[in-house]
Amino acid sequence: MLRRGAVVRTAPGRGDVAHASHQFTGPSLPPTTVGNVPSSATPAVLPHSRRPATGSVVVVGAGLAGAQTVAALRSHGFSGRVTILGAEGVGPYDRPALSKELFTRQRPAWLVEEMGVDVVALADEARLDDPAVDLDPGTDAVTITTRSGRRVTADVAVLALGAEPVRPAGWEAALTLHTADDAARLRERLVPGTRLVSIGAGWIGAELAGVASKAGCEVTVLEAAQTPLERQLGAEVGGHLVRWYAEAGARLLTGTQVTEVGPTSVRLADGRSVEGDLVLAAVGARPATAWLKGTLPLDPRGSIRVNSAGRVAPPTVAAPSGTSGHLPLKSLRRLYAVGDCATRDSAVFGPVPGGHWSAALHDPEPTVRALLGIDEMPAEPQHVRELLGLAPVPQHAPYVFSQQLGHDIALFGTPSPFHEVVYRGDPSGGASGHEGWVALYLETVAGAHRTNAEGHRLATVRAILVVDAPREVGPVRKLMNRDVALHVDVEAATDPSRRLRDAVV
């Protein structure tokens, strides 16, 4: 297990309450998305002049998003007080490596080593084993109460709360894989010959099934849907992944409903019992926001809705029906959220839920630029920004990378069950003469068929999945990281002998 302990740096003379200096000029609300209308359609508002680089910011969460927020504050010259609160008692580390490199990496991928981000050095106070349990938004300052009872008051709070694994009631005996300690426990128990029963064939379930099978374990994966990754990729694409399990030496049972979970067995709705030496619950994750219910506007899955700059959105403007929590605008202007706990407005993809590694990596930068008054319009199209005299802002499509069962997957964008799927290459595994395959998720409108001069159908691409085709990843990333929607000639886009960029219209 990992060595734990709070790392605390506090200015001399401070008591139990870390008080804000109140020199930070509170930001005013930037343009936001109203309904389905992107912010670029609202009246242009010139950004405010840069605010004083003093005051105080509390970053709640010490994962990748929290670490990137602290780093961005300092890189943009913020010299005020920065406090970061964590829950695991250790410094930030790269979480995806826990499943992908369970047996090849014996220690966490510390961000201080991988990315040079040292939150202990950058923050004035780093309390890495004292998580937040209460938030008082206030109107003049934000106050966070921690598990130890300490109160931290600041001018602005950035919520980088991350996510937590879903473990339904009655599944307490099942293990999960979310933290470095979880990985250490699994690594110790998954010796050759161990029988692992994994509930869920999503990202984590598939990745762990692959590495455990390769390590000599006997793996059974139970999936409620009819195909792996059905919720993430759709049933059609998920169907092409079924054979991967048998090829990797794992047993996959789809369409299985779990009724009872024990430490070494799982009972199914049809009466069968699947026996093992340990059981893993890998049925997804939810935003770690339960403690905020009734305080902030949360959507039904517990996500915090934010605008393109990361500021918590007023429920009367941008939050969907079914949200909880109502705050005055004067309080919301001091609250930001990034990473897995936030659903962020995108001019191209619409509301984008957290859970994408790229969101934790990239979203803190525009959020910090907005709260410091450097740039409050990060989602505006580049031509609008040029008219306003603003520098270009890199755009980043939602991105997931997975190594599972001997295959590499890269997903850009946001697939939907309503999208039409077309392919470059052969997903069935037949001889196509080309390496790997690519699935394009097209948005189609009933009764609306656009064609070009050659009579080829035109369509809007909302997501692209790249499977075992490393040469396609770079070009696809470049095409999807645009500030406008991607439109293609479908016939050209599905021809693997042609470059995908040549299909763009």
Describe the 3D structure.
This is FAD-dependent oxidoreductase. It comes from Oerskovia douganii. With 505 residues, this protein is α/β, with parallel strands linked by helices. The chain has three domains: 215 residues, FAD/NAD(P)-binding domain (3-Layer(bba) Sandwich), CATH 3.50.50.60; 104 residues, 3-Layer(bba) Sandwich (FAD/NAD(P)-binding domain), CATH 3.50.50.60; 105 residues, 2-Layer Sandwich (Enolase-like, domain 1). It is built from 15 helices and 28 strands. The strands form seven sheets. Strands 22, 23, 24, 25, 26, 27 and 28 form a seven-stranded antiparallel sheet that branches. It has a five-stranded parallel sheet with strand order 4-3-2-8-19. Strand 5 and strand 6 form a beta hairpin. The radius of gyration is 24 Å and the shape is globular. The chain starts with 16 loop residues before the first strand and ends in a 12-residue tail after the last helix.
| CATH structural architecture of the largest domain | 3-Layer(bba) Sandwich
Determine the strand fraction and express it as a percent band: 15-25%
Biggest sheet record: 7 strands, antiparallel
CATH topology of the largest domain: FAD/NAD(P)-binding domain
